[in-house]
Amino acid sequence: QVQLVESGGGLVQPGGSLRLSCAASGNIFSINAMGWYRQAPGKQRELVAAISDGSINYADSVKGRFTISRDNAKNTLYLQMNSLKPEDTAVYYCNADVNLVHWARSRGTYWGQGTQVTVSS
């Protein structure tokens, strides 16, 4: 059992900034990768940014504006969002690819409940 809890969403004006956090807890042995996805009304969920030991990837639409980071000791993921635009408005979801504790002998992908980001005047 793994839980992901997002926080930091809210209402911000265009050009503003927000910092999202995702705290992972539960029967975690290790986390292979974590990422942020977003979904706007009527649209498909899309990858925003992802981080693993080997790489960091960003959607073209957020490159240069968003920064993903990870605190492995705290099992916490962050997304610093700067220069926000109205088209960034969406529910943002945290995702984690998790190796569970050794006695569980399991690996799985988990999602948080999402946090709303609204960019509007």
Task: Tell me what you see in this structure.
- Strands 2, 4, 5, 6, 9, 10 and 11 form a seven-stranded mixed beta sheet that branches. The protein has a four-stranded antiparallel beta sheet with strand order 1-3-8-7, with no helix packed on it.
- The model has no long low-confidence stretch (mean pLDDT 95).
- It has no helices and eleven strands.
- Helices cover 0% and strands 60% of the residues.
- Strand 4 and strand 5 form a beta hairpin.
- The chain has 121 residues and is mostly beta strands.
- It is elongated and about 50 Å long.
Helix content: under 10%
- Note the total helix count: 0
Spans where pLDDT lies below 50 across 5 or more residues: none
SSE-based structural type: mainly beta
Backbone shape: elongated
Main β-sheet, in a few words? 7 strands, mixed
User: In whole angstroms, how far apart are the ends?
Assistant: 40 Å
Number of E-type strands: 11
Instruction: Calculate Rg over CA atoms.
Output: 14 Å
Strand content: over 45%
